[in-house]
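May I ask for an example protein's residues together with how it folds?

___
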Amino acid sequence: MTALQYDDMVMKHADALFRFAFSMLGDKMDAEDVVQGVFERLWAKHQQVEIVSTKTYLFTSVHRACIDVFRKRRSTKKVLDTLSLDQRQFVPDQLEKRQLAEHILQYLDEGQRALVLLRDYEGYSYKEIGEIAGLTLAQVKIKLFRARQKIQDVLHLDGQCTNQIN
């Protein structure tokens, strides 16, 4: 890979990778660090790496780096729920669709969140998600089904349901 090809890759994919990392981590600085780290490691070994699918390679790398961040967070302290039960009882009409989605995604574990983000926000196929996450096609489908069930459970909390998330 030449420097020009590398620069083109950064320009083409950096924004989508940042959005994905930020959605996974919920922290702008951590997301920026993850994306920058992935690009730095890629450049450091650019002569040894043969990339078949640039997009898949980059998203896989960011996904794994986000999981590493979660592990580091857990090793220093337990992750606390960001919303109490009282705060979950919101009226969906008062929130925009995006805000609702962000709140709901916080109830998913990092693996479920990654799959939902890759499928519903980034538009990846089940096969591509499997390649990124290191899962079989069946595992991707099952895990996405369970994540969506969990989303529905949160939406049905206290009998309040909205169909704003597809």
